Amino acid sequence: MAGSIKKGERRNPNGRPKGSKDKRREFYDVVKALQETGHDPVRAIIKIAQDELASLEMQHKANATLLTYAAPALKAVQHDHTVDVSEDLKQLAENMKEIMKGFVRDF
Questions:
Q1: 18 phi, psi to nearest 5 deg
Q2: Going by C-beta distance under 8 Å and a sequence separation of 6 or more, which residues neighbour residue 82?
């Protein structure tokens, strides 16, 4: 079978080296540490953003940080294929005819 992997063979020999940190594991470790200490960084940033005694620059940075979580940047999407919707449109037209039968009388 073409493309199959034999026992002991590596699919990506240049992949993550053994013993290196897994980013998901690191993320869960950070979340666990935050929960254990009771620290909530998002609430801390919100407090800075709302603190009238904080400098405008600090408030701006806090709001900009929060905005990246509330409204992430949009990425461009490239469509590499076309979709034929003619059958869908025909079915929709048939469905509409059935629905309209109850509302419109033929003269």
A1: -60, 140
A2: none
pTM given for the model: 0.44
- Report the alpha-carbon distance of residue 4 to residue 11 in Å, rounded: 9
In a domain, 59, yes or no: yes
Print the domain residue range for 65: 23-101
* DSSP character at residue 13: T
CB proximity list for 48: less than 8 A, separation 6 or greater: 54, 58, 59, 62
pLDDT in tens, 78-95: 777 777 778 888 888 888
Q: Please check whether residue 8 lies inside any domain of the structure.
A: no
The answer to whether position 80 is within a domain reads: yes
